[in-house]
Structure formats: structure tokens, C-alpha cells
Amino acid sequence: MSVTAPRGFRAAGVAAGLKSTGARDVALVVNDGPTHDSASVFTSNRCQANPVLWSREVVRDGTVRAVVLNSGGANCYTGPEGFQTTHATAERVAEHLGIGAIDVVVCSTGLIGLQNDRADLLAGVDAAHAALAADGGPDAAAAIMTTDSVSKQVVVEGAGWSIGGMAKGAGMLAPQLATMLVVLTTDAVVPAADLDTALRAATRVSFDRLDSDGCMSTNDTVTVLASGASGITPPLEDFTEALTQACTDLAVQLLQDAEGADHEIAITVLNAASEDDAVEVGRSIARSNLFKAAVFGKDPNWGRVLASIGTTSAAFDPADLDVAMNGVWVCRRSTPDEDPAGVDLSGREVTVTVDLKAGDERATVWTNDLTHAYVHENSAYSS
Amino acid sequence: MSVTAPRGFRAAGVAAGLKSTGARDVALVVNDGPTHDSASVFTSNRCQANPVLWSREVVRDGTVRAVVLNSGGANCYTGPEGFQTTHATAERVAEHLGIGAIDVVVCSTGLIGLQNDRADLLAGVDAAHAALAADGGPDAAAAIMTTDSVSKQVVVEGAGWSIGGMAKGAGMLAPQLATMLVVLTTDAVVPAADLDTALRAATRVSFDRLDSDGCMSTNDTVTVLASGASGITPPLEDFTEALTQACTDLAVQLLQDAEGADHEIAITVLNAASEDDAVEVGRSIARSNLFKAAVFGKDPNWGRVLASIGTTSAAFDPADLDVAMNGVWVCRRSTPDEDPAGVDLSGREVTVTVDLKAGDERATVWTNDLTHAYVHENSAYSS
């Protein structure tokens, strides 16, 4: 399962004492080849953690042989000492595998501004290497969890090849990217340049459209590794479609496990002049605390939807907007239409549909409601 | 007091049945002259309520003789019928005063997408006109409250002239403008063009820097009326300074009464390359739900401050940022410095100071923490 479903991969997840709970906190994913093609995308936050600074260099040549990940500390804003910890982690993995450290991606997650204990982390790498197994995916997925309540894994089958994936993330989920670490694996033969094309296409419509709380992390990393062990080179279109399916599945799992959320909200913007317009409008609604609190209160407050649309630069006529919630068109031509009392918000899934009447493009952005539990979890996280 | 402190003004606030509680909900402020100069600023939201659409035309020539305001319904996205209600309201005021409706600003606040009862509203105008008094300011200030727990009033004394003001607003407070209605009065002689200059200078550093919840209203209006009744023409610089003082005082009152807030947070950005950069950085921190929830939890989580700074386009070196909370420099050169345990967040007032080390400009942005009470109030507002 998970990242070890495709052939050519081993993985492990062990407890190294970085988490005070004693839970698994170091994961290792190794690509045994024969190919070692890879592609990655990172957070667009300008404040980036040490593992991101390191891994950006690692992925530059399209070759990655292993990914080592830890929870229990983000290693962000920890200065030169923190960077040395990241470097030492990659070196230790490389020593065990007989490869170069420059082919080892490092990912960390947890609190910012906290040094990880380097000795504990390196001992964790030793233990993870010793535990590497062809069915180690689930352990690895468990080891990267922070406030996640469940681990996130996916497998998508192709024609004689497959894609596996794991993800972590529950808060600080916002576009470009959500706060998350994602490792995807495939035994298809896919050259690094094609992997890059496919990954960017897949993340653009999945992780990049997830906006749980508008907060963007310093540590986000998505890496895809191709082992080529199936010997099959799928058409790029097929591979991209399967990778998009895997990323969307993981994105929805992240959404469903978002900290303290009561509702998953899918905001679809129709008939926009451009896809960018559709995404901008969807995102502005997804970031309205007032709207998100209303959904928590099961209140179909479409006025807050219109107020959010009005803050964007998208093309539309303010006097001719239609809005539906769960299929009930509560607003047409910017005036009240069907009775909001007909909108049933008792279930977890909520759809908001906005018709901009300005073109032919569309996009869906996902978010959660704003709840007491969100405030509770995020006011108590580090204390 | 309030808008009736300067000479030349009468005001009233009455109950017209628009609020189900029976509280005052219609306010009227009349400028008896001899001058009727005015200036206004409105929400920059592209979705604008009917009173805003009307009042934008009213203020165009710099002459305003009265402002009529109602709570109990925003008259936004209520279509042509709603616009006619606004127009009828202005006409009724004009009839009573023997003036033209085109000199009457109309402001409404409350739920979006709800028709106000026109008969109730017009009867309220009749009652408000009958109740007009030279000491009616406090009643008017009470009549514009919605979720406000207290009315907001201010008086600033000049040399033989004064400025009075009232404001409402407790949620949907975000820049350009906060959700609020503000009426300012003065008995100074100030031509409309100078009033406009002074008002824009004053709001730029007061209401525009208040960002309680990142949500921008459809109804915001700030209007200043000059009666000239003192006969004194102050230097524009003096008047602007006094008007800025009045607006800042009202902005802080709005901040202190923000829905459900436990803390007032002043974010000061130092040594920015431009004032715009300083405001952008301050606003990005003010909009971080994670940071605001941490303050509610009395957790000096400076990592969330850095993560917010990183989402901006301001000039800075990500490896050389300093951050203080309540005067304790918890982060210097982007690494941990003084012990966060020394940051006492038990009081209501919190300061965050960011040193960008990129220039000489600075700005302060105000916000609140994100609390259980905020979620509660905004999930239950319309139900």
C-alpha cells in the first residue's frame, strides 16, 4: 500500500523520540530503481524551512534516490545549526544507502523555531534504514502525522504500472501549497522532465486549490519518484491523469481531516472569464471567516458570499450574480430567489456554486468551516 | 456630545421596529449650516448596497445637508425594490427639511439580502425628524448599533471649533473600509475639497488600517459634514490632524468592541522599504487565523508571524527578520532569541513589532484575536 505499492520502493516509519508522545516520527522512502527520476514542488512562502532550502538543491538535476521525513519539529527559523541538522540527516541516509547526500530529499514538520535534537534524529535514520521493507508504506505514512487524526494514503492503478502516495497535513492548509508533506511513487518509466510537467499539472488543480485556513506553511514539499521497475512507459497524458487522481484523492483526505472542521465546502465558480478569475473568486469565499463561521452555524448566509466576491478583481456584473448552496439558488440576478430555509446544512458536505456569467471557464476550490474546535486546536498547539 | 457637539447640528435616534428587539434603529443627523460642505469615502467592495449606490451620487457635488441611517437591515442585494426604498427614505427626509433628496446621504446596516419594511422605515424618518435636537447625538449613535455592545462617539476640540463623530461596527471589519458607518461633524469652515483631502488622509491611517477579521463590507460609509457655524477657518493641517485624531479614536473603539475578541493586537512594522510594504506585512499577520488563535491561547507563536510575512511581496531578507511580542524580541536574525516564556499575553493589549531592515518607513495595523466567541457570534448572527 501507500508509497510501497509500486514496485522498486522500500519504506519505513520509526519512533525516534522527537514526538513527546513516543509515536513514530521518522520516515524513510527509498527508490531502488532501476530509474531515479523525480520532480518536486515546494511552498511559495518566502520564509522557508531549512529542509526546503536543502531539498530545492537536491531536486535540481531530476534525480532523487531517497526521501527522509520527520515530524516533531519543522526545523524552520533555526539558523545555521538547523541547516546543519538537515544536511547531517541527508548524509546519514546517503551513508546507509551508499549514495550521495545530494540525492536525498529532506522534509520536516512540526513547530517553527525549535531545534530538532540532532542525535535523536540521526538515530531515527539508523532505525528507519534498518526497518526498510517493501510493505513499509503505512508505517512511513504514520510517522509524518502531526495534528492529523488519520494517515493519508492512496494507490492508483495504471496499465501494468501504478502510483502510490502518502500525505500529512491538517492545519495551515492554503494554496501554493497547503501545509503538507507529500511523497508520490510510481514504477512507471517517466523521465524527470515529464514527471515535472505531470506533477505541476496535478498539483495545480488539487493541492493548490485546497484552502483550509488561508495560512501558508514554510515547509510544504511534494515529491514524486519514478523507479521504472514496471518497465512500462505510459503515455504522458495517462500518467498525468492518474497522478492528478492521486493528488486529488490525497487533497480531499487532507480536507476531510482539517483541524476541527465540521464541514467540507466545495466552492465551484462557473462561467468565469478565465480560470484565474474562477480560482480568485473561489479562494476569496474560502477565506471569509464570516462565511465559514456561518456554515458552521448551518446558516446559508449568501450575503457573505457576495461580499467576498466583491473583493476580487474578477470580471462580473455586481448586479447579475447567481449563488446556490447545496443546489438551492438562494440568489439570482443579485437578488433573493429560492428560500434559504430549503438549504440543508446538516451534512458534512457543502457545495457553493457561483455563476459569474462572464465567460466559459470554471474552477473548484475546497475549504472547511470555521469552528470552535479550530480555534481550540490552534490556540493550544504549542502550549 | 458626539455628532451634535459642534454647533450647527441636530440629531435624533428612534425605534422604528426594524430591529426585532425594539431598540433604536433609525438615526438622523442634520447640518443646519450656514455651510453644507461635505466629503465621504465608501467601501471598495465591488458588491455595494443600495444606500452606497445612492449616496455616491449624493456626495458628488460636495454638498450634504443630512444623513439618515438605519440598522436592522443592510438593504444590500435587494434589487430595484431595495433601491427604491433608499430613494424614498432620502425623499422623506428632504420633504421634512425642505431640501432636495440629492443632498441626503443614506446609510444602512444589518443583514444582506433582506428587504427593509419601507413603511416602518419612513415612519421612523418621521419620528426621527420630530425628535431632532441639539443634544441628540447619543441617541443617533445608539440607533446605528448592530452587534456593537456599546455606542462609539468622539469629540475633538480645536481652537474655537470642534469635531464630533459617531461610528458603528463590530464585525466584518477590514480595510477599505471596515464594516462600519461613521458620521463626523465640524463647525469649522472647511470647503468640500479640503474636507476631502483631510478625510482621505485621516481614514488612510485609521479605519483603513483596522482589520478585525479580513472581511470587507458592502455598506461602509464615512461622511464628514462641515456647518461653518463657528465662523473659523482653521489651517488645513490643523484640521486634518484633529480629524485624524477623531478617526483613530473611533477606530480604536471599533477594535475594542470587535465581536468576541479577547485581545486588541497592534502590529507595527519598522524599517520597511515603503509604507505600502509595511502595511502589506502588517495586514498579512493581521489576517493569519493561526496567529490570531495563538494569541487567544496566550501562546507567543512567532513562527506564525514569520510564516505570514513570507506570503508578502515586501522587501526583506528572509534570513534577517526580527520579531518582538509585547517588547520581548523572541526572534532576531530569523532565529530564536529571547525566551518566549517572557511574553505575558494575559492582558488585552498585545503589540507585535517586526523589523524588516529594508528601509525607513513604518506602519501600524490593528486586529483582534480569533476566539470561540467570534465563531459563536458569527455562526448564529442571522438564525
Secondary structure: elements and pairs:
The structure is a homodimer of 383-residue chains.
Chain A: E1 9-14, E2 26-31, E3 37-42, H1 50-58, E4 66-70, H2 79-97, E5 104-108, H3 118-131, H4 137-143, E6 152-157, E7 162-168, E8 181-186, H5 192-204, E9 221-226, H6 236-256, E10 264-272, H7 275-286, H8 289-296, H9 302-309, E11 322-325, E12 328-332, E13 335-336, E14 349-355, E15 361-368, H10 372-380
Helix pairs in contact in A: 1-2, 2-3, 5-6, 7-9
Would you write up a description of this structure?
The structure is a homodimer of 383-residue chains. The first copy, chain A, has 383 residues and is of the alpha+beta class. Chain A has 2 domains: 2-255, L-amino peptidase D-ALA esterase/amidase; 264-380, ArgJ beta chain, C-terminal domain (Ubiquitin-like (UB roll), Roll), CATH 3.10.20.340. Helix content of chain A is 31%, strand content 23%. Chain A is built from 10 helices and 15 strands. Chain A has helices spanning 50-58, 79-97, 118-131, 137-143, 192-204, 236-256, 275-286, 289-296, 302-309, 372-380, and strands at 9-14, 26-31, 37-42, 66-70, 104-108, 152-157, 162-168, 181-186, 221-226, 264-272, 322-325, 328-332, 335-336, 349-355, 361-368. In chain A, the strands form 3 sheets. In chain A, strands 13-12-11-14-10-15 form a 6-stranded mixed β-sheet. In chain A, helix 2 (79-97) packs parallel to helix 3. At the A-B interface, helix 8, helix 9, strand 13 and helix 10 of A face helix 8, helix 9, strand 13 and helix 10 of B.
